[in-house]
Amino acid sequence: MEMIRQLYGVEELQGYTEELAVVKKYFNPLPPVLEEFWNRAARTEAIHRVQDKWIRPEDFDQWDWLKDSDYLVILIENQGCCRAGIRRKDLTKADPPVYVAADQINDHRWTLCAGTLSGFLRAALAYESVFAFAFHGEGLMYWLTEEELETVRSGLEKQPFGLSGWLGMDMSFYSNASDNIAVVMECGDLEVLYGAASEAGYKKLMEVMEGLGEAI
Known about the structure:
Blueprint: H1 2-8, H2 20-24, H3 32-40, E1 53-54, H4 59-62, H5 64-67, E2 71-76, E3 82-87, E4 98-102, E5 111-114, H6 117-130, E6 135-144, H7 146-155, E7 157-166, E8 169-175, E9 180-187, E10 189-196, H8 199-209, E11 214-215
Antiparallel strand pairs: 1-2, 2-3, 3-4, 4-5, 6-10, 6-11, 7-8, 8-9, 9-10
Helix pairs in contact: 1-6
């Protein structure tokens, strides 16, 4: 949870308590990792001021497709291009895998997005934080060459989490301070977006990222 404080620049985290009873009407039990995230941090407003939509407990009473799904959906892409969720049959696992699918409601072509829920949460929170950062490149997103990717890999520390298949891309994460992140996205071409929550974190990141990439 310290990661949220650092990347989103918040001191106090807020979670759901009795609101989770709504979710448990349709998905029970909840995996301990998910319940802890929802209890401790998922109500923090800063994590909702991002690119995509984190599902809130009240959404389950509003959307029939959400409560009737074979997957407990936790994140939806902002234009409905894809969604991520936990298989209903995996709810008894402490830290289950997370899958991703295109957002046609009857689409059953779910593929593995992250091997564990804890890894998914760290990766998704890191990815979404870039869209809320106070400090980022003017273009936000850039094309990368293979040579430039090697500069990123050699100059920044690769993080122990990633995403597969979100928006059809594989994402890896790099950093050199607790409040900055660079997200490398591979989808045939190479793309990167990066930024930091603080000016100091951004300056540290730009020691490596300065001059890299062509704005998209």
